[in-house]
Each structure stands twice: as C-alpha cells, then as structure tokens.
Design goal:
Helix content: over 70%
Mean pLDDT: 84
Low-confidence stretches: none
Radius of gyration: 19 Å
Strand content: under 5%
Shape: globular
Number of strands: 0
Largest sheet: none
Oligomer: single chain
Structural class: mainly alpha
Distance between the termini: 23 Å
C-alpha cells in the first residue's frame, strides 16, 4: 500500500498538481474560491442558525464554532466527491499505461488537502478576532487529521472502484453526503440531538472527528480518547477492506472504462 507513496511519488505529485491547476484554470479569482466558498457558506449558515433558528449559547461565538466543523466536513465531502470520479475521469490513462490505480484516488485527496490548508487562513483570522486561546493540546489536531484521512481514503477506494461499474454511485453520493452532514454535529452540538439517537455519533467516525477538533481547538482540552480510538479502529478496518476491494477489481478497470 505504501508503494504508491514511495515508488510512484513523482507521478503522484504530478497528478496532484494537475488536479489543482485544472480546477481553476479559466477562473478569474483562481484559488481565492478555495477560501471564499467555505467562508460564504459559513456566513449563510451562521445567519440562519444563530439569528433565525437561534441555536443556544455554545460557549464560543457561533461563527467560529460552525467554521471549526464546516472546514473538516467540507474537506471530507469534497475529497469523496472527487475521488469517486477519479477513475472515470482518468479513463485515458488507465488504458494506456500501468501503475497502481489508487494513485488517482490519492492525488485527488491530496489536492483537496491543499485546498483545506489554504481555507484555514480565514479560520486563523477568526480565532484571533474572537480571542480563542490555544495551548499544547492543539497538537492533537495532527492525529485527528490523520484519522480523518485514513477514513476518507478507505471509503474513497470503495467508491472509486464501485463507481467505475455503477455510475449511479456518483449521483447517489450527493444525497448521502447531505443526509450524513445532518447526522454529524457540523451545525449543532451533540447536546441538541435527541439523546436516544446519540448512539449514531459513536458509529459515525466523522462525528467523533469533528467533536475532537472542536474540543482541542476551541475548548483547549483533549479529545475523547475512547471515541477517537474507536474511530481509528473503524477507519483502519475500512482502509483494509477498501484497499482489498480496489485491488481485487483493478485488473478489469481497463476493460470497463
């Protein structure tokens, strides 16, 4: 599995750069859209849920609470969307030359990580503006981010391979992502969710991950290690299963496209 990162690192870098450049090639504002899209989405959602729906006091201003969940969720949703179409969109390369096909999936995810890093600039400004104190616990962001990417990569391998055979998956994914977002505490706290249904968060790695981000960034504490450990275990199982599924079908990719 690590061969894709080592032996083919130059190809991986090239495909990632191509993915980044092509996206905003004919755009006037270019990479500014990476920052503007989640920013304006946050403004609209903050207005709706803090002014109209009047979500109760969360201990921190709602805009930064929302942004802390919206940014990692946007990274997750965009990564899945792009990775699902990674094989279909590179059909020409698949039929011409052999190299591990998971590189297409990895490169799309890495391109979205670059977008995520750029979009963090506004979040940092928000933290300064709202005087959010940070301490050494913020370093927990690194393992939390790693768990998120393991989960994303494992699920992306499943979706990319399956979408090559059943193109309906790319259309169904949008609906699933929308429902999934509302079952994840992106716009609300877990306390606002009906208590008898909160078990959903325990089996939803993205719920655990987003709560963990908020705990270490906004509250300055440590994440729930039991829940984070479970999310890691589920992510590793998904990665192992997704990789096996992907490699099992890899031999017929060229025939399908």
């Amino acid at each position: 599995m690590l061969e894709s990162f080592t032996k083919y690192h130059e190809l991986l870098s090239e495909l990632t750069m191509r993915e980044i450049k092509q996206r905003y090639k004919q755009s006037v504002l270019g990479y500014a859209w990476v920052i503007l899209n989640p920013f304006f989405q946050m403004l609209v959602m903050a207005f709706v849920f803090s002014i109209i729906m009047r979500i109760p006091n969360l201990g921190v201003p709602y805009p930064i609470f929302l942004y802390a969940g919206l940014l990692p969720w946007t990274l997750f949703a965009n990564s899945l969307g792009s990775a699902t179409n990674a094989l279909v969109g590179n059909a020409g390369l698949i039929t011409k030359i052999y190299f591990p096909r998971e590189i297409f999936v990895i490169s799309t995810i890495m391109a979205k990580i670059v977008d995520f890093v750029l979009s963090l600039s506004i979040f940092v400004i928000f933290m300064i503006y709202f005087h959010v104190a940070i301490n050494w616990n913020i370093l927990w962001v690194l393992p939390i981010f790693a768990i998120q990417q393991i989960f994303t990569y494992g699920l992306s391998l499943f979706l990319a391979a399956a979408n090559l055979f059943y193109r309906d998956i790319q259309y169904l994914l949008g609906l699933v992502i929308l429902i999934w977002m509302y079952l994840t505490p992106v716009i609300y706290t877990t306390e606002l969710f009906p208590e008898r249904y909160r078990w959903i968060f325990q089996i939803n790695p993205m719920a655990v991950i987003i709560n963990a981000y908020r705990q270490v960034i906004l509250a300055g504490g440590i994440p729930n290690l039991r829940s984070l450990g479970l999310a890691l275990a589920l992510s590793l199982i998904l990665l192992f299963g997704g990789y096996k599924f992907f490699k099992k079908l890899e031999g017929v990719f060229a025939d399908i496209v």
